[in-house]
Every structure is written in C-alpha cells, then in structure tokens.
Specification:
Elements: E1 12-14, E2 19-21, H1 25-46, H2 49-74, H3 86-102, E3 110-111, H4 116-140, H5 147-170, E4 176-177
Antiparallel strand pairs: 1-2, 3-4
Keywords: ATP-binding, Cobalamin biosynthesis, Nucleotide-binding, Transferase
EC number: 2.5.1.17
Subunit structure: Homotrimer.
Length: 197
C-alpha cells in the first residue's frame, strides 16, 4: 500500500471539509498537536515500566486524545461533532493534583532536565504551549475553533510539567531551581501562573 498521494505537491492540503495551504493557521495548530504527540511517544520509550506504569497509561490515553484534538481542529464542516470532551480535562486535573502531591516541594521555577525522560517531557510541555498559542491565533483570526481544544492543551501543558517533575523524583534526581527566580510556587509546588497561563 502506497502512502504518497501527490495531492499535496503544490502546497495544498485537505482539511475535513476544505482544502487550504499547508501554511494555514489551522494546519499549524493541528500539526503542532501531532508534533506534541510524537514527543510524548518519545518520552514513553524512556520511562521504565516498573516505576511509571501510571504515567505510561496516562500518556497513551493522551496520545489518543491528541489525535481527537487534531481531528477536531481539522474539521471545518457545519456538522462537526467534537471528539474531545470535558471529561478528558477533568482526568488531567485529577492527575495533576495527584502528581504534584507526590512531587517534592519547590519554591522557584525549575530548569528543564535532570533525567532523560524528564527533559523529553519538558520538551513536550513547551510544544504544548506552542500549540496553545497557535490555537489562540486561529481563534483570533475569526476561525471556528472548539473551545475545548484550547482548554485541553492548556491543561495538558500543566500535566506534562507535573509528569516531568515525577520522572526526576522517581528516578532519584532532584529538580534544579532557577536561581534568579522569585518564589513563585505555592506550598503544593503548583505555579501561581501570574502570566495568565
């Protein structure tokens, strides 16, 4: 079975319900969710199953949800039925609380890194933030965008921060605090989010 179609050779691609340029804001948005999914897959290959069965379950579910999110973003038909629902956000919020409760307390921003899995999860977190910005650009351009997609990606970046911290903690490596940072974390280690994120 061939995977090439030649239909994109002139710089156009297909949405669900339209054809647009490959540099369209909508393509950038759902393409970045695909990039995010790939980094999550990479992180999963680095997490030992014995210590991280719960995270691996989380991340596999998230991979499916990112496919749903990308499909919702690519659908421009009047009959769009979004696959991603609020229950996915509720699960992420519960898991964030659990993971941050397990993580050692911190007071300042931390530097990405420590262990390999943690570094990869931090990369995924930053890609999630970029996906979020691109979804906002799409919304600000007047495009119809499922609001749940923006909410989900926002919460997912928080989950990935928590997961990156747990990767270090369970592998016996401490987070390195950014020494020039003010104290920006509450007692739980959750960011105050003064920047509105």
């Amino acid at each position: 079975m061939g995977i090439y179609t030649r239909t994109g050779d002139k710089g156009m691609t297909g949405l669900i319900g339209a054809r647009v340029g490959k540099d369209h804001l909508r393509v950038e948005a759902y393409g970045t969710t695909d990039e995010l999914n790939a980094f999550i897959g990479k992180a999963m290959t680095e997490l030992p199953e014995e210590e991280f069965a719960d995270l691996l379950d989380d991340l596999e579910t998230i991979q499916h949800e990112l496919f749903d999110c990308g499909g919702d973003l690519a659908n421009v038909t009047d009959k769009r039925k979004d696959k991603l629902g609020p229950e996915s956000i509720e699960v992420l919020e519960r898991r964030i609380d659990e993971l941050m409760g397990e993580a050692p307390p911190i007071e300042r921003f931390i530097l990405p890194g420590g262990t390999g899995p943690s570094a990869t999860l931090h990369i995924a977190r930053t890609v999630a933030r970029r996906a979020e910005r691109q979804i906002v650009r799409l919304m600000n351009a007047g495009e119809d965008v499922p609001e749940i997609a923006l909410q989900y990606i926002n919460r997912l970046s928080d989950y990935l921060f928590a997961a990156a911290r747990i990767a270090n903690a369970r592998l016996g490596t401490g987070d390195i605090e950014y020494v020039r940072s003010a104290k920006v974390f509450r007692n739980t280690g959750s960011p105050g989010k003064k920047d509105g994120e």
